[in-house]
Write a structure and sequence with these properties.
It contains 3 helices and 7 strands, in the order ββααβββββα. By secondary structure, it is α+β, with helices and mostly antiparallel strands. It starts with 12 loop residues before the first strand and ends in a 14-residue tail after the last helix. The chain has one domain: Hotdog Thioesterase (Thiol Ester Dehydrase, Chain A). Strands 1, 2, 3, 4, 5, 6 and 7 form a 7-stranded antiparallel beta sheet that branches. It is globular.
Amino acid sequence: MTPPLAPRQSPEMTILPEAPPTIPEWVVHPNPVWLSVRPSQDEASAVIAHVSNVSYLHWIDHAAERALSTAGWTYKDLLEQQAMFFVARHEIDYRLEADQNELLYMATWVRDVRRVKSWRDTIIWRITEGQPAVVCTASTLWVHVDLDTRRPTRVPADMTAALAPLQHTDPPWRTRA
């Protein structure tokens, strides 16, 4: 018998009711989910004094979960439908260091939904001298999976509508050569 999974510890992350005081120009969705996060001592690297790269991944995952819930689809709702989103790919660009106990902001939105897959973009930044300083950008490819068959299954139309995808092919921080 497989033991139950241990509950994941949530980072000190808060959904914000409105946009932070300043936002990066790369926030292109008209209605992203706004969050704040304050790294803890536990999220610091064991080697040097900054936030561990693994912490960013954790935040990106939690932000996606909270954004999906904000759109009306909790993990409990998905489980009741015998479906779940699984990560197929993370693309993360670490742009600046962040320190523990530093207030960071996040914006996340769905860029694209196609049949069984969805791209979600996330930006993490801090405010430095009144300006946004982008700390990290990320794009995550999520696949909607039927839990009975463990095969990809179509994202429900009402979920797609609730996620309000931009239907763009590239995140705003990528430039084509």
